[in-house]
Write a sequence for this structure.
């Protein structure tokens, strides 16, 4: 860069010992008084009109610029030291000259000037692929140059800045709010008129008009304080359009209050619009226009406050905070300070801070930087997922990868590279040793498979058990079931009666008798032989109906399907009572053996097999743990949960929801695993809920994350 600011001498073949001559400043640059710094020192703002950029400089830089006509660093430094109290050095002048050259603020002179400019431009121009990706993430489209229009209409717009208009707007807000509260029910239901084509168009126009008014609020306020507004247009942030107004010239204003007014003018304009819209709502007839006004009075300004006042993104809130703290380039300076603080905390380099900052302001900048990093991480992660779902899979995956790399991966990689490539490397300081120890411990915790166990929700129950239900809505005629009573296979436990079924059976049997008689008569009469075949079909149908009704009546006798013990007999339940279909009557278990039924997640299934050792831990603290081993693993995931107590809707550990017919459906794939106690264990009287701890294959946290991520990629790679 030193060669870049050297002109004439080296290019013309003159001796290298000739003093360096500096290119002159560009003639169109202008200098404006700037605000005083927090320590009271004066500042100035250097403006580049061609690019509409502004640079804040201090007293030393001002004195150097004032003597730039000396053209040599040594001569300029000597003049500054001789004519002021500043002890300037040629190195300071050369450093400032390199900065001016890198920003294109010096004239290009000499035979090699064009080549030097081309080299500088090439260095600043990214590769075409990087340019394309950066353009996709953010690009601007200037639409109008409003400065002449703003100057012409400023006298009319100045009426909106008067005290009278402010008082009228406050009165409109109070009056409109009072009238809206008096008919609050009608106010909050106005949005129903949006569900029509006319309502949707008016709503879009209202939103667009509010945003245009927002931008003109910035523009008119800037013009009012003498600032030029070169362009207004649309900026696309990840293909999302947002209006913008270039009010960069506000940086040349020394008054912080004026810059704050320019930054807050857009929000103030929308708040004023909301106040008048609230008043207008009470006088408009019901319909789409009233709905559009309702939108302006409610959601528009609320969304504006939530989005534009957010200082963690470069919207109005960011510039307001920057002006309020009087810290130009707030994000860059806060991020630089935060990176320095992070490096010192991790490695203790002993480097000076990037700039001297008061302790109180330093804490504010650090808090702002770390909050912005955290906010942006989750914001860009959400944007990446949104981009993935908005496009077809191949393009969505590519754009999501671009988002994650550009906004999250690239800054982290750049910072890590800065640590490694730092001059002098990383010295073995105390902070560095602590950081290395913590990092190694973290890597060990993530990479080493320390623990192989996994936990799954489970129940301990009888190996053979069944629940007895009422097959139909009927009356209990006989009850032979008692809690704890033994039952042999085939014993009748409940006898139900259904007068409706009995009546239908009697009718069906009567129909069969009638049809049988008709068939016999037809067989004796030749004239009726043609009707015999159809009558036989009716007879077969009637016999089938009678058999079905007999089967239904037979099912009303609830018997024991196997020998066991009755538990959970429905209570209260007595002879003569009516029961509904599928009402639970009792539970029959075989008390001789028990089984543990667990549900294992799909991602953990590969870590266990038949014979895996386990331990059942009941939810009841007074219950005993049971040592067991896996005896069977389902080959397919469970579509329904057969054990209701394990469902999350009943307090269990398997995330599930109720589907059709109140069926319990797992939210994620789970596999049914059966375990048996290693020593004989009688069946419990009731199902015991708990968890089973399985001694699965050891797997590190990193391997689990990689396997899960790979599964997601495989699942989502079906193009």
């Amino acid at each position: 860069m030193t060669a870049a600011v050297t002109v004439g001498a080296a290019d013309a073949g003159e001796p290298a010992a000739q003093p360096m001559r500096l290119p002159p400043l560009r003639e169109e640059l202008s200098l404006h008084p700037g605000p005083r710094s927090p320590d009271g020192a004066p500042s100035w703002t250097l403006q580049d009109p061609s690019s509409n950029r502004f640079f804040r400089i201090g007293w030393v830089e001002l004195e150097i610029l004032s003597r730039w006509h000396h053209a040599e660093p040594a001569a300029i430094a000597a003049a500054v030291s001789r004519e002021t109290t500043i002890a300037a050095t040629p190195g300071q002048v050369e450093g400032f000259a390199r900065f001016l050259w890198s920003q294109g603020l010096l004239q290009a002179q000499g035979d090699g000037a064009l080549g030097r400019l081309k080299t500088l431009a090439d260095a600043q121009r990214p590769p075409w692929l990087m340019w394309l990706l950066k353009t996709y993430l953010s690009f601007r489209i200037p639409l109008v140059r409003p400065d002449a229009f703003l100057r012409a209409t400023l006298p009319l717009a100045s009426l909106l800045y008067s005290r009278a208009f402010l008082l009228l707007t406050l009165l409109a807000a109070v009056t409109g709010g009072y009238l809206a509260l008096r008919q609050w029910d009608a106010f909050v239901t106005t949005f129903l008129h949006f569900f029509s084509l006319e309502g949707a168009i008016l709503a879009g126009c209202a939103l667009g008009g509010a945003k245009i008014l927002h931008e003109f609020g910035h523009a008119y306020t800037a013009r009012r304080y003498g600032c030029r507004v070169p362009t207004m247009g649309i900026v696309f942030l990840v293909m999302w359009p947002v209006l913008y107004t270039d009010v960069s010239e506000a940086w040349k204003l020394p008054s912080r209050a004026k810059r704050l007014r320019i930054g807050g003018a857009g929000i103030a304009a929308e708040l004023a619009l909301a106040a008048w819209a609230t008043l207008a709502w009470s006088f408009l007839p019901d319909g789409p226009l009233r709905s559009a006004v309702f939108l302006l009075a409610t959601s528009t300004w609320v969304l504006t406050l939530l989005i534009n006042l957010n200082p963690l993104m470069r919207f109005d809130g960011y510039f307001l905070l920057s002006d309020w703290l009087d810290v130009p380039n707030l994000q860059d300076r806060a991020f630089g300070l935060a990176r320095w603080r992070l490096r010192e905390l991790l490695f203790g380099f002993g480097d000076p801070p990037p700039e001297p900052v008061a302790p109180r302001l330093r804490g504010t900048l650090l808090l702002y930087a770390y909050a912005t990093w955290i906010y942006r991480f989750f914001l860009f992660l959400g944007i990446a997922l949104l981009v993935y779902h908005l496009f077809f899979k191949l393009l969505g995956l590519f754009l999501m990868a671009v988002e994650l790399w550009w906004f999250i991966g690239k800054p982290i990689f750049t910072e890590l590279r800065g640590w490694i490539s730092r001059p002098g490397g990383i010295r073995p300081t105390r902070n560095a040793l602590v950081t290395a120890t913590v990092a190694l411990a973290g890597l060990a915790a993530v990479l080493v498979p320390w623990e192989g166990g996994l936990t799954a929700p489970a129940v301990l129950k009888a190996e053979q058990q069944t629940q007895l239900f009422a097959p139909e809505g009927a009356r209990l005629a006989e009850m032979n079931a008692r809690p704890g009573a033994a039952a042999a296979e085939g014993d009748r436990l409940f006898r139900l009666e259904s007068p409706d079924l009995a009546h239908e059976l009697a009718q069906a049997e009567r129909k069969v008798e009638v049809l049988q008689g008709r068939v016999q008569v037809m067989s004796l009469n030749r004239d009726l032989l043609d009707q015999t075949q159809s009558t036989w079909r009716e007879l077969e149908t009637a016999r089938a109906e009678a058999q079905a009704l007999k089967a239904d009546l037979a099912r009303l006798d609830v018997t024991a399907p196997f020998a066991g013990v009755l538990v959970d007999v429905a209570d209260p339940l007595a002879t003569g009572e009516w029961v509904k279909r599928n009402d639970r009557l009792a539970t029959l278990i075989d008390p001789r053996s028990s089984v543990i039924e667990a549900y294992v997640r799909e991602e953990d299934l590969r870590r266990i097999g038949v014979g895996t050792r386990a331990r059942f831990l009941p939810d009841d603290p007074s219950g005993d743990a049971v040592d067991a081993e896996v005896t069977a693993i389902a080959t397919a995931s469970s579509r329904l949960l057969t054990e209701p107590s394990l469902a999350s809707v009943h307090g269990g550990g398997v995330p599930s929801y109720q589907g059709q017919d109140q069926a319990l459906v797992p939210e994620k794939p789970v596999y049914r695993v059966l375990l048996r106690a290693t020593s004989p264990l009688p069946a419990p009287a009731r199902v015991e809920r708990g968890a089973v701890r399985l001694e699965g294959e050891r797997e590190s946290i990193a391997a689990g994350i990689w396997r899960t991520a790979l599964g997601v990629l495989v699942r989502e790679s079906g193009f």
User: Anything to note?
Assistant: The radius of gyration is 42 Å. Residues 466-498+509-524+534-579 form one domain.
